[in-house]
Design goal:
Length: 400
């Protein structure tokens, strides 16, 4: 496919709509009490040989919040919001919820929905962008759960496409950044404001290998002769987030023109010798010119205000700004914003039809999308150890 362009390549992997039995909301999972923290972290790092002493070093983030990650309650709230939107549209699709690393586990939920008589399942994953941790790892873990439960031949699981540039994801982020800039304006801090879009750092090799390999993000062909050049170009993970960040800033330019912005990274972990995506948000804050009057931080890479948002942004990044005497406004993730919830069900209606109905038209606000339904075998490959990827994804995963 040396002549393929990114949009065409994705469009060629769209599946025909059909009728499904239910929806599975797929999350990462998180501890819900002090006694859960180390068992949860053992689940995340299982098979990697990470000692409990090292896990306890990570656990202090959870200990600070009573051992409770907000992510499970946020997914409960999202499940309820989805059920309300589904009922409003008359779709009659029950919603189940399962996690990769904490209860309710994928395997248990698959057994439950199978016992309820469902056989064709449409999966909504709580990540918007393309990466190993944000897409492929979910598919692999669902496949493992099918195998463990013996339901591989009885259940069909189809995942909806990545939705980074769907209006339901982009528009709430536009509203949030606009609101943040207005807050700085009221405080008299908007004249020389800066916006930082924060997302999860991942190993550079994982970023370079994100997305399908037939073209680089700029549409130029990828060499087919192997070697490190096969991974060159930065990958789709970064390209998608840059594109969405640019969309957001273009949308607010009518009220706040010429505001500079930066894509920054957070939550790095793992071997310090391994190259990860940079700049870290705290380094980026410290590198800002003294003339910057105020900072808006948008956690664009995440769909809920889970632990990494609460700790890395609301604690560490805020402290860095306070040390500089810089006003900071951290705006919310999409969470259960009605536009986001409606957009997720729009994605469902791209794939689910009843009584010969027509599927919903696929929407995308960048030239990259609409993204693919079917991931090719070489999509989001990584040469990094899974231990590194899993540690990067703790409490929500990339984009969770």
């Amino acid at each position: 496919m040396t002549d393929a362009q990114p949009t065409l390549a994705a469009a060629q992997r769209a599946l025909d709509a059909e009728t499904y039995d239910c929806i599975l909301l797929a999350g990462f999972g998180g501890p819900e009490g002090q006694d859960d923290v180390i068992p949860y972290l053992r689940n995340v790092t299982r098979g990697r040989g990470v000692p409990d002493e090292r896990l306890e070093e990570v656990a202090h983030h959870y200990r600070h919040f009573g051992g409770i990650s907000p992510i499970n309650q946020q997914n409960r709230d999202l499940k309820t919001a989805l059920e309300t939107e589904i009922a409003k549209r008359g779709l009659e699709l029950p919603v189940y919820w399962g996690n990769r690393f904490w209860a309710p586990y994928f395997a248990d939920v698959l057994k439950e929905l199978h016992a309820d008589g469902h056989r064709k399942v449409l999966v909504l994953v709580t990540t918007a962008f393309s990466s190993y941790s944000g897409c492929r790892a979910y598919r692999e873990d669902l496949a493992t759960a099918l195998d463990e439960t013996g339901l591989t031949d009885d259940l069909r699981l189809d995942k909806v496409r990545q939705y980074f540039d769907h209006p339901g994801f982009v528009k709430p982020n536009i509203d949030a950044v606009r609101s943040g800039l207005r807050e700085l304006q009221v405080a008299g801090k908007s004249e020389n404001a800066h916006v930082m879009f924060a997302t999860h750092s991942i190993p550079s090799v994982a970023a370079d290998g994100s997305g399908p390999r037939e073209t680089r993000p700029d549409g130029t062909p990828v060499p087919t002769d192997g070697g490190d050049e096969w991974y060159a170009g930065g990958g789709w993970y970064v390209e998608q987030q840059r594109a969405v960040s640019a969309l957001v800033m273009d949308a607010v330019a009518d009220e706040f023109p010429d505001v500079p912005w930066t894509l920054v990274f957070q939550s790095r972990s793992g071997d310090p010798r391994t190259p990860w995506l940079e700049p870290d948000i705290n380094d980026a804050i410290n590198a800002l010119d003294d003339s910057v009057s105020g900072l808006v931080v948008s956690p664009i890479g995440f769909v809920s205000d889970h632990m990494e948002v609460a700790w890395d942004l609301d604690n560490e990044a805020l402290e860095t700004c306070e040390e500089r005497g810089l006003a900071m406004v951290r705006v919310p993730t999409v969470g259960v914003d009605p536009q986001f919830v409606s957009g997720l069900i729009d994605l469902v209606e791209e794939r689910h039809v009843v009584d010969g109905g027509q599927p919903r038209q696929r929407e995308a606000l960048t030239d990259i999308g609409p993204w693919q339904d079917v991931c090719p075998a070489d999509c989001c490959l990584t040469r990094s150890p899974k231990a590194t990827i899993a540690s990067a994804a703790a409490d929500g995963g990339v984009g969770a």
